[in-house]
Design a protein that fits this description.
four-stranded mixed sheet; 4 strands
Length: 221
């Protein structure tokens, strides 16, 4: 059954931003429903009827419900991207996209979130000082992540799968933006990579990231 593509998102969430940007980049007709994480709306009964895991984002496409962000990125790109660039059908290219999407969960994501959560979010919510031991652990791991990303996933290529941007690059850039908002300084290689993603996506990139940047400034005051 055909139906409207609906994203349940909050732009403070990295994968939410990636999904929103993907839909804009490939001009997929969609609706975005804002679920405010800071106000705990993802824990309310109405949203739990959509996602019992109480996580953001979630995606509905007609009768299809997708509760994991990487699965949603793959689905939307496969269904709505006529260019075949964002999630290529060529298996030799696609495997590089999938490789990063699988790797990032326990690397880019866990340490980017860990750094941001312990330095910015929890101290603001609990009105306490940051646990700098935890912050520094994630900071150390983020340095490893950037080195692994630069050496293994990029190498001499502009993007993860080669000359063209993919959903892997989009998610990676959105994940890197979280610790950057909290003051983490990535290498020139990573910053240049983010600039290439921004250029490919266009003005929507900074529009979508404006919320996390402004929210972080307010939390760190």
């Amino acid at each position: 059954m055909a139906g409207k593509l609906i994203l349940y998102v909050d732009p403070v969430s990295q994968p939410s931003r990636a999904l929103s940007l993907l839909c804009r980049a490939i001009r997929a007709p969609h609706q975005e429903i804002y679920i405010n994480l800071m106000k705990g709306e993802h824990m309310k009964k109405d949203y739990m009827a959509v996602n019992p895991f109480r996580k953001i984002p979630a995606v509905k496409d007609g009768d299809t419900l997708i509760l994991e962000s990487c699965a949603a990125l793959r689905f939307i790109a496969s269904k709505y991207d006529s260019s075949d660039l964002w999630y290529p059908k060529n298996l030799d290219v696609r495997c590089k996209v999938d490789e990063y999407l699988d790797w990032q969960h326990l690397n880019t994501r866990v340490h980017g979130v860990g750094y941001f959560r312990n330095l910015v979010l929890l101290p603001a919510l609990k009105r306490t000082k940051p646990d700098m031991q935890l912050v520094n652990q994630h900071k150390k791991e983020l340095k490893r992540v950037q080195n692994d990303f630069s050496k293994h996933f990029l190498g001499s290529k502009p993007f993860i799968s080669g000359d063209h941007i993919s959903i892997a690059d989009l998610l990676a850039s959105c994940e890197f933006e979280q610790p950057i908002a909290g003051g983490f300084e990535f290498s020139e290689t990573i910053l240049n990579f983010i600039d290439r993603v921004r250029e490919e996506v266009g003005p929507d990139y900074d529009k979508i990231h404006a919320t996390i940047r402004e929210t972080t400034k307010q939390l760190m005051q």
